[in-house]
Specification:
The protein has helices at about 1-10, 20-25, 45-55, 75-90, 110-115, 140-150, 165-170, 170-180, 195-210, 225-230, 235-240, and strands spanning about 25, 60-65, 65, 100, 105, 130, 155-160, 185, 215. The chain is α/β, with parallel strands linked by helices. It has one domain: Alpha-Beta Barrel (TIM Barrel), CATH 3.20.20. The strands form two sheets. The protein has a six-stranded parallel β-sheet. Strand 1, helix 3 and strand 2 (about 60-65) form a beta-alpha-beta unit. It binds fe (ii) ion. Fe (ii) ion binds near residues 29, 31, 104, 159 and 218.
């Protein structure tokens, strides 16, 4: 599998052939900021992950720790401190990769307050904001959140739309969000069946209809690096190359 990826990355057979690093130069969804959520626990893990990203040709990482009222009440000041520590370690290790901070917000009351107070971590010139909805039920009043996000000048990006059971059951509800200005970020590991068959099927459906705006890893542990490598084959590269992805705007 690694050989496939290397061939893919360095494909010289055609001048128009894109490499994986061309279409995924920046990972904008991951949990590699150490010790702040259910992601990587230590700075050593973060550096090992970043080294692998560099090997893959990735130029930048926007880390997106969970922020939610009940589970991960992360304060921005603390997240900024940890980000500075990682940036210093990257400089010390001479790793050629950009590292910056955003977040993955759970749509809850705290998030609404943060939006009202303009205290939201966003990324890119277009002020993209990554958010997720709960796993159990279709979110109530999501329209209000989408409206407020856009009113405040943000571009909402729904994390892993293919993973929610309620959207797998009624994809028309999901597509209605697009009409309300919501962008979609696909988890690459969905393509490897990492989250089950239904997520894999919806992932492919969303790619076929060209409704995916960003791809990301949503990496939580180092073993996910191996899972990601399982995605890296020529068919997937061809499929992703045809998408109107915005990842390259972030590098
Ligand atoms: Fe995530």
């Amino acid at each position: 599998m690694w050989k496939d990826f290397t061939n893919w990355l360095t494909n010289k057979h055609s001048t128009v052939q894109k490499s994986f690093a061309d279409i995924w130069p920046v990972d904008l969804h991951n949990h590699i900021l150490p010790g702040v959520d259910d992601g990587l626990p230590t700075l050593e893990d973060t550096l090992a992950c970043l080294q692998k990203y560099v090997d893959w040709g990735i130029k930048g990482v926007i880390c997106t720790p969970h922020i939610s009222q009940d589970y991960y009440p992360n304060e921005v000041q603390r997240l900024k401190q940890v980000t500075l520590t990682v940036q210093q370690a990257i400089a010390d290790a001479n790793l050629p990769i950009q590292f910056s901070l955003a977040a993955e917000y759970l749509v809850d009351e705290w998030y609404y307050t943060l939006l009202e107070q303009d205290e939201v971590l966003c990324f890119g010139k277009d002020r993209f904001v990554l958010f997720e909805t709960g796993w159990a039920n279709s979110p109530r009043q999501l329209d209000q959140y989408l409206f407020l996000m856009q009113l405040k000048g943000y571009k909402p990006v729904l994390a892993h739309p293919e993973r929610y059971h309620y959207y797998q059951s009624s994809p028309e509800q999901l597509m209605a969000l697009k009409d309300k200005g919501c962008l979609f970020q696909l988890n690459l590991m969905s393509l490897a069946g990492h989250y089950g068959k239904r997520a894999q099927q919806l992932a492919h459906k969303l790619l076929q209809s060209k409704d995916i705006d960003f791809i990301g890893s949503d990496l939580h542990r180092l073993t996910h690096l191996t899972t990601l490598e399982q995605v890296f084959d020529q068919d997937t590269l061809d499929l992703l190359s045809q998408q109107p992805l915005l990842n390259s705007q972030l590098s």
